[in-house]
Amino acid sequence: MKINRYLWNSLDQNGREKILSRSRNDISAVLPDVQKIIDEIRRTGDEALRRFTKEWDHVDLTGIPLKVTPEEREAAEASLPDELKTALDFSIENVRRFHERQKPEGITPFEISSGIFGGEKVTPIESLGIYIPRGRGSFPSMLYMTAVPAVVAGVPRICVVTPPAADGSVDAACLYAAKRCGIDEIYRVGGAQAIAALAYGTESIPPVVKLTGPGSRYVTAAKQLLYGTVDVGLPAGPSESIILADAAADPYTTALDLITEAEHGSDSSALLITPSAALADAVESELPGLIAQLPEQRREFVANVLSGYGGIIQTASIEEAVDLVNRLATEHLKIVTENPFETEKSIRNAGEIILGERTPFSAANYSIGPNAVLPTGGSAKTFSGVSVRDFVKYSSLIYTTEDGYNRLREVVPPLAEYEGFSAHKNAFDLRKGN
After folding, report:
1. Integer Cα distance of 225 and 108 in angstroms
2. DSSP state, 260?
3. Residues marked as catalytic
4. pLDDT tens per residue, range 141-199
């Protein structure tokens, strides 16, 4: 089994660029097909949705309503084992508790200067469409991670779209998670056609003002093409993770955590970055045995990642390792050093930062509470993970007294005149009662 092993200082510019570019989704090849799908959805609505579901997902929805029925939701809940429902309940409650702390208060209007008042009003967006993929499995965790912050924000209409199974059904755990989040508007459609339906609306699916949730390159392409028609939300591409570790890290646990995010797919990225040659050697020796224990498909994904956009990078120092981590701006970062809290102070770019040996990536992905829908592809340099703040907007509140107006009358007209805006100047100069 090939596992990439790099000495950072020995790599040439091309070698470094390959690592820094990572596994971004190339969507250019599918843009023409996706544009045709969007045009057809806009033209014929539900008919195109059903046609594309049959063509792309190989599911015939003839005679089946696009919206999931209450009876289906009840049957789904009854079909789930109590152990899974308990795990979902626990995780959803933790996510809710965390995101309640994010709810913004706005700014109560205050006197900025004599007679001049300003503040900020916070209101939720009007509607949200959540995309839940299904191509590589079922993801109820993705549903509650995106739904809970929107619910906490107070979004009045939240709907879910997700590809159906071969019989037209929707994943039972996703339906249960939706119920626990208070969402009952769920549609059995996926792919670029679902994104187009949410953007433009069809006979069955009213349009929304914002989208969230990751998907295939077709979904990503649809979002790109519909940018400006609808808010497409956070850039979310293939999963990526970094473990930043020194000689204090346990090799077995480090290897165990390294393959966690790699099992998402062959286009994922998973790196161990360490200044310790001994740790790098020990982790490399642990990996084959751990990978061999995985089911065939996940084993293949992990093997492809560790020989493709993953592996082990040895640096000359912990400082150099930190610098590389900041340049990569990864989605998931785990720090396992002698003093992870001290190391963390030097991290500027990461979607999430997990500290210490005892917290696997999977714990943060599912159940701790902070959001697991995070920026990828280096976008953590400017983007944050999904939060309540993504589903609210801010309006300025402004008021002036007579004293404030008189003070502004002295300063605004000169500024307006300098910039050549005569009507702005006249709004003061020609106002009655001046």
Report:
1. 39
2. T
3. 331-332
4. 999 999 999 999 999 999 999 999 999 999 999 999 999 999 999 999 999 999 999 99
